[in-house]
Amino acid sequence: MIPLGASADLYDVGGSGSLEARLPLPSLAPFFPYVEVGYGLIPTPADKSLSLLSSGAGAGFQHHASPRVSLTASAGGGYYSATWGDESAARFY
Question: pTM for this structure?
Answer without folding.
Answer: 0.74
